[in-house]
Automatic annotation (TrEMBL):
Transmembrane segments: none
Coiled-coil ranges per UniProt: none
Protein name: Dissimilatory adenylylsulfate reductase beta subunit
Keyword Iron: yes
Keyword rRNA-binding: no
One GO MF term attached to the UniProt entry: metal ion binding
Length: 111
């Protein structure tokens, strides 16, 4: 499984050398193309942690849910509202469901 990046929504996080998704990916799998759009290097190496999905300020990344948890073509997107994250689940039959995780934990990766 892997992530899909919507090139229409992605703006490369402006002119930053390192975009939000590049910075957060624990596998260093994301990079920016010459067109200033995020791309994934090797889809097989993505382990669906969804860190980039939560981090993207433009909701340009979605993750496929693995078969192991009954995903089968379902996708998840996230909108970070600061103290909560709104997740949108889309299934193959077209149904859409939203759920909110409140009081999220904050991690400081620079510690
Ligand atoms: S975080 Fe989102 S907008 Fe920024 S480069 Fe990645 S996909 Fe594009
Ligand atoms: S889901 Fe996780 S491992 Fe996969 S590209 Fe995003 S941050 Fe990297």
């Amino acid at each position: 499984m892997t992530v899909r990046i919507d090139k229409k929504l992605c703006n490369g996080c402006g002119n930053k050398d390192e975009s939000c998704c590049m910075r957060i990916c624990p596998g260093n799998l994301l990079y920016k193309t010459k067109n200033n759009k995020a791309e994934i290097r090797d889809k097989a190496d993505c382990w669906d942690c969804a860190a980039c999905v939560k981090e993207c300020p433009r909701q340009a990344i979605e993750v496929y849910l693995p078969v192991e948890i009954g995903g089968r073509g379902s996708t998840l997107k996230a909108k970070d509202l600061g103290n909560e994250i709104v997740w949108t689940l889309k299934t193959q039959d077209g149904s859409v469901e939203e759920f909110t995780i409140r009081n999220k934990l904050w991690f400081n990766w620079n510690l």
